[in-house]
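Trying the structure run again after the queue cleared.
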Amino acid sequence: MSGDVSLRFCIADPPYLGRAVRWYGAGGCGDGHGYGQADNHPDAVDWDDPKRHQQLVVDLDRDFDGWAIAMTVHSLSTYLQVVETDSRSGIRVAVWHKPNALTSGARVSNRWEPVLLRIPKSRRGRNVGNSCNDVFRSSSARNGFRGAKPHGWTEWILEMLGVQPHDEVVDMFHGSGAVSESLAVLKLRSEEADS
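Done. Tokens:
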């Protein structure tokens, strides 16, 4: 495949493993500690099962040419159990460094989140897309939507995946709408470059 072939990508930002009750309420139905966030992920409790996260990898590999999954550092090992990590697989672990992350009460502060990516072979070369870093430094978004990513996060993911304007990108968890906004910006830039 060349860089001109349209590919299918997915950005997945599922409810984080072990956080359903805390962030969305027990059973995903608004009771518990979720403080009315259950409507954002009514099936959040399903994502407290590590097998659901591992099945996500299988589903993404089956349905997409490339993908990215946002997660916590504590769930990275769950995902790595089901991916090939040799250099031919296209799997990369990237880092979102969050200088303003809230303390959790733990002795060691967690100021980063991993993003697991599968970059299609045709988009790994130097001649396809812009050069980019596998570390993104930005403060957490504070917009009232639990798990919202900061401005620029989605563009960073799209750059790493090598997404081109003619590709299809699926936002598996609509959340705050950041992926859709970034895709609209990408399309607008492409149209401006073509005119």
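The helical segments are 20-24, 50-63, 76-80, 153-161, 178-194. Worth checking whether this holds up in the mutant runs.
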